[in-house]
Amino acid sequence: MAKRRKNRTHLKGANAREAHSDGVPKSFIIKHGQVGSSLTQLVRDMRKVMEPNTASRLKERHRNKLKDYLTMAPALQVTHLLAFTLTPLAPSLRIIRLSNGPTLSFRVERYSLMKDVLRSTKRTRSTGIEYLTPPLLVLASFPPPSPTTPPHLSLLMKSFQSLFPPLSPQSLSLSQARRVVLVSYNQESGTIDIRHYTITVKPFGVSRRLRKILEGGTTAKSTSGLLDLGNEKDVADFVLRKRGEPGPDGYESASSAESVAGDENAAVDLAEDYVGRNNKKGQRRAVRLDEVGPRLELRLIKITEGIPGKEGAVIYHEFVKKTKKEAAEQAAAHAAKEKLRKERRAEQERNVQRKKALKTKGQDGYAGESEGDEAESEAEYEDDGKWDEDEEISEGEASEEGSDPDSSEDEDRPPAKRLRIKGRR
Asked: Is the pLDDT of residue 424 over 80?
């Protein structure tokens, strides 16, 4: 039997081009420092929100520092780093734009995990295929750009927009719109609320029981897709009556027989085929958002230029306000620091080039000297190999100043050792 070939069906068409394009932002979502199990689960939930353009199986180690991720991320074409940590006051979140910043620091006022949100609702659980496509970003309650709008709010909006792929209505397929990330700004409290929803499309203008007949239903005992009407005497009892809550005449009221998918404002005509049964082009359907979590309430604390370890000027601070003079002095100090850093870098480059040149020159000189030494040694070897007829040959070498060779050998000879015989005392 031939081996089954695995195909990546979730990377077909426009989605495949989008996944391999260079303009799609990619992110790392990590935790660093000593954090609890709740914050660790929040990191996993945020990875689900940012899928599929994030490292969902990234494993952190206790010895990993934030600097390690900042060094490794650009090599992997990662554009954003979301780092959670736990401070004595509250959990904090930093959104870092790689590789030159800016860095946005938030305080996590409140948060709810995905499991907590799903327990509080009776909606259908997600199947998991919604996370094969990136979510749609919706920015709400942000003030429009104007001369009176604080500049940090415009930068905050652009930062959230850069986290997700840009929306192109011309190339976006309707079936790819499966999730929504809502980022709303609360002007009274100055906080940012983040919500995560899945898009559900249901028939419009029919009751819930009739919708089960049209779409088919499953029970815990039967998973064949057929609706179980074994306990009903008539189809009208199932369609019109609500179990446990009969009306005055024993039938369901008209209000409860209406569509549960929404009112007329939520009804749309599908422009294309959508995911789900009978969701064909031209059909009138009601659109509903089911929250799956997590929920976050963030407070912007600080915006700085650069990245951690290479911070620049402070663009915005929630609690520290500086005058124009102090801001100018700070900008001058950062400019001087940056100038000194560039000068040191240029000096290091010059030193490296100088050492390379000296090394190359030394290797060339050593090669020339070695060639000359070899030539001299060869000439000496040739001279030594010649036979000199006038040279006197003797059996022994004459010592200097006519000294006796035998006497010199006796002087250098060590004294004789006394032999010891075993058994003799």
From this structure: no
